[in-house]
Amino acid sequence: MPETAPRPTLEAVAARAGVSRATASRVVNGGDGVREPLVERVRRAVEELGYVPNQAARSLVTRRHDAIAVVVAEPETRVFADPFFALQLRGISKELTAHDNQLVLLLTEGRDDHARVGRYLAGGHVDGALVFSLHLDDPLPALIRRAGVPTVFGGRPGWDDGSGDDAPYVDSDNRGGAREAVRHLVGLGRTRVAHITGPLDQTSAADRLDGFRDVLPDANPRLVVSGDFTPAGGERAMRELLDRCPDVDAVFAANDLTAAGALRVLRERGRRVPEDVAVIGFDDMLPVAEQTDPPLTTVRQDIEEMGRLMARSLLRNLDHRDIPPQEDAPSGVVLPTTLVRRASA
Q1: Are 200 and 208 in contact (CB under 8 A)?
Q2: Is residue 113 within 8 Å of residue 107, measured between CB atoms?
Q3: How far is CA 293 from CA 126, 185, 279, in A?
Q4: Who has greater pLDDT, 110 or 69?
Q5: Which of 13, 139, 245, 305 matches a 20 to 30 Å C-alpha distance to 148?
Q6: What is residue 122's predicted lDDT score, i.e. its pLDDT?
Q7: Rounded distance, CA 283 to CA 249, Å?
Q8: HSE-up of 72 (CA within 13 Å, CB side)?
């Protein structure tokens, strides 16, 4: 077996740069108080020697692990099948990578997983957490609060753990986007407009239902059918809707996957889209919206940007954790949505 060359030490870096070990340590670990010429000498020595800091030792100095937990409150079968999560994770990953932080992905399948995630976060393995796809009865917010981990949530908080109103979050204008979609359908002359909801224990789905009702407050309750943000849920809900109200002439689906399932059932039942039934989704996930038959009119939210802003907000909070927040500083960021018109409506 060939001998492995010894790893360069911090002492070797200091000797190469002609500085003390303490000075080399401050530069390597991002400390202040070192003159720029010395900083450059240390950085050059690090590069020449190929020195890699020991993360455990570095954490003792900086009190940072440079690792962020991303907690998705969904089972892995849902996370890896839904492009929404891939887009949000891509935005998070890009921002964390740009700041030399590691992403630690944690998924929850059931109550045992909630306890496991709570223990992991309380164990001091990460600097903070990004959490999304929460349901109203989810114990995670309370577990995270007890763990004392800085956290940013994806989606408007809707739980009551004693701090929900102040929890930092990033969301899209779900209610406003839904209003725009329904107004578009009404503007097309459609008079029997239905809504297939998402799971109403999630604030995004509840807000989209509220947006539908803002425009059509007197809509027949039979025109509102429950879905679950999946294609199978869209198919089931569309069949139920056609059985209830055969003369439906428009559908606002709570997301693109739901709309894709609804389109399949409409085609099976011989309904032309958009001539007989106009359909609008929500998300504008291009792998879905551009490949449906016909291409889907939908409400666009910038999912990747939501992930990026979540990560940026958390990293900013970590860098300024010793500075008390301003009383008038908003706890949430809400991104605008836009209607993207294609052939389905």
Answers
A1: no
A2: yes
A3: 44, 18, 11
A4: 69
A5: 305
A6: 87
A7: 22
A8: 19
Whole-number pLDDT of residue 29: 73
Q: Could you tell me the two tokens for 283?
A: 């998300």
Structure tokens at 198: 């998402």
**Nearest-angstrom CA–CA distance, 25 and 65:** 16
Mean pLDDT of 295-304: 97
DSSP 283-305: E--HHHHTTSSSPPEEEE--HHH
The one-letter code for the residue type at 296 is: L
Segment 226-243 shows an average pLDDT of 97
Q: Given this model, what pLDDT does residue 54 score?
A: 62
Which helix (H) or strand (E) segment is 196 a member of?
strand 193-196
Buried b / exposed e along 22-58 (16+ C-beta atoms within 10 A): ebbbbbbbeeeebeeebeebbeebbeebebebeeeeb
Residue 90 has a CB neighbour count (10 Å cut-off) of: 14
pLDDT at 323 over 50: no
Give residue 162's Cα distance to chain centre. 23
Tokens of 143: 């577990």
Distance CA 309, CA 291 (A): 28
Q: pTM for the full model?
A: 0.80
CA atoms within 13 Å, Cβ hemisphere of 67: 16
pLDDT band at 1; cut points 50, 70, 90: very low
Residue 269 in contact with residue 298, Cβ under 8 Å? no
What is the distance between the alpha carbons of residues 51 and 45, in angstroms, rounded to a whole number?
8
pLDDT of residue 224: 97
Q: Residue 41 is encoded by which pair of tokens? A: 């000498």
